[in-house]
Design a protein that fits this description.
The protein is an alpha/beta fold and 499 residues long. The protein is built from 17 helices and 13 strands. The chain is globular and about 60 Å long. Its cofactor is pyridoxal 5'-phosphate.
């Protein structure tokens, strides 16, 4: 056994650190060693359980209902809000889209009777047909700001819901309610808002967006995967935060991740609905086969109870007072980071942080891809974001509680990285290569062509990742989004093969 564990630890040596606050994407660190240990013990205790059938492991039902009740209270859902623990924010978003689609198809679980504030009784079926039902033979659609998380496009791909994308305000990066309203039609089954958006860290004007959805009998989902466990505790601590939760009439569902700012082990998110009626189309059952009647509340059937138990244990351990303290620490750290980063020569903060996310842009003397490489060399991981339409590339930094005490170190590293990147200058992509990339149709490329392009991008050897990613990202940055997607899918296909 010791040999196996030793091999695992050796393999981990090439991974980014999950604790210590230096990895500013993908992981969230409370800095509380005892909470981490409680989570690990709960994972081990429940590792063999299966949430497929709540009558077999009734403790899982208790744990899930406890967590959902906590989240519903936090997000002002009143006594009627219900929810489901999922594997992550993407699954929560997938289910929100699937539920809206299926509700519109059947005419059941429409929001017309359920979009009032939680102090008003709701839950009885609507007596009128949904205005959001797509016309006969048409495909359902959802209206979303251009800053909505990519998981909504994954849902569109999986469930045949056409995404109608609306540009955001070019200065604030917030959704424009009037533009979203203009994009709605008889096929619209869902309108989306973010609290906050991942790329820029701003909260959309949820009251106005939810109101336009309610007026049309359309569901409104708020993606609060990042902010849902932060904004309420900041509000309790006296910070003025935008209205975004079930206290806003018209909001019908909210996604909030536990494995982000509840600091639980990976694999736990919650999808909340304002009422049981609105949630009902989310469930799947099938009895017309010779086996057991399949009954699922999520996209999973077999569902490990370990992340659920770990989330419950960590949430119980930290508690409201602990989360209020952690939210304020992370928020203050993000604000301080933004203030100090704005003073670094060559950097610009794109928007004041509404929660714990900071987005930075570099001037023409350096590119963010080289800055990210230089930060990695200094022991910090920051996430490059490629250009989007007329917006240049940027850097994404997620601040967790463990990072907040290291802001001075982080800023010093940023200053050094920017200076080195300015000396090196931006990565240059040959104009003829950029022109060729812009004219390629990925649908016409075969495996040999992808092999050549991947080699050109520095990704030809899937067994050995490049030490510096700036040249790769610079080339991807000049490629149109469809070609970026095709290249990265080809790379993933080659990367994930047995050796």
């Amino acid at each position: 056994m010791s040999d196996v564990l030793a091999r695992l630890k050796a393999l981990q040596e090439g991974d980014l650190p999950t604790h210590g606050g230096s990895t500013l994407a993908y992981v969230y660190d409370s800095g509380l060693a005892e909470a981490d240990e409680i989570g690990r013990q709960a994972l081990a205790l429940y590792g063999a359980t299966n949430g497929l059938d709540p009558t077999v492991f009734p403790s899982l039902r208790t744990l899930e209902n406890d967590l959902v009740g906590w989240a519903a209270r936090l997000l002002q859902g009143g006594s009627g809000a219900v929810g489901t623990v999922t594997s992550g924010g993407t699954e929560s978003i997938l289910l929100a889209v699937q539920t809206a689609r299926d509700a519109a198809r059947s005419g059941a679980g429409t929001p017309s009777a359920d979009t009032r504030s939680p102090s008003v009784s709701a839950g009885s079926p609507s007596s009128r047909p949904p205005t959001s039902a797509p016309p006969s033979g048409g495909s359902p659609s959802m209206v979303l700001p251009a800053t909505a998380h990519a998981a909504f496009f994954k849902a569109a791909h999986y469930f045949g819901v056409r995404p109608v994308v609306v540009d955001v305000d070019p200065v604030t990066f917030k959704a424009r309610p009037e533009a979203l309203a203009a994009a709605c039609d008889d096929s619209t089954v869902l309108v989306v808002a973010s609290a906050p958006s991942y790329a820029h860290g701003v909260v959309d004007p949820v009251p106005e967006i939810a109101a336009l959805a309610a007026e049309r009998g359309i569901r409104c989902h708020v993606d609060a995967c990042i902010g849902g466990w932060v904004l309420p505790y900041l509000r309790a601590d006296g910070i003025r935060v935008p209205d975004f939760d079930f206290a806003v009439p018209g909001v019908t569902s909210i996604s909030v991740d536990l494995h982000k700012y509840a600091y639980t082990p990976k694999g736990a998110s919650i999808l909340l609905h304002r009422s049981a009626e609105l949630r009902r189309p989310q469930f799947f059952a099938h009895a017309d086969w010779p086996g057991y009647t399949m009954l699922n509340s999520t996209t999973q059937s077999t569902k490990s109870g370990a992340p659920l138990a770990a989330a419950w244990a960590v949430v119980q351990h930290i508690g409201d007072a602990g989360y209020q303290r952690l939210a304020r620490i992370a928020y203050d750290g993000a604000v301080r980071l933004a203030d100090m980063a704005d003073e670094v020569d060559g950097l610009t903060v794109l928007a004041p942080p509404a929660t714990t996310l900071v987005a930075l842009r570099s001037d023409e003397r350096a590119d963010v891809f080289t800055i990210a490489d230089e930060m990695a060399a200094l022991g910090w991981f920051v996430q490059p974001q490629l250009s989007f339409r007329d917006q240049p590339p940027s850097l994404h930094l997620t601040v967790s509680a463990a990072t907040a005490d290291r802001i001075d170190e982080l800023i010093a590293a940023l200053r050094t990285a920017v200076q080195k990147a300015q000396v090196a200058g931006p990565v240059q992509v040959a104009p003829e290569l950029a022109a060729a990339a812009g004219g390629l149709d990925p649908a016409t490329l075969d495996d040999a062509a992808f092999d050549g392009l991947l080699a050109l991008a520095g990704l030809g050897d899937a067994g050995a990742l490049p030490e510096r990613m700036a040249p790769v990202n610079a080339l991807l940055n000049v490629a149109p989004p469809r070609l970026r997607e095709a290249l990265l899918i080809a790379f993933l296909d080659r990367l994930m093969r047995p050796t």
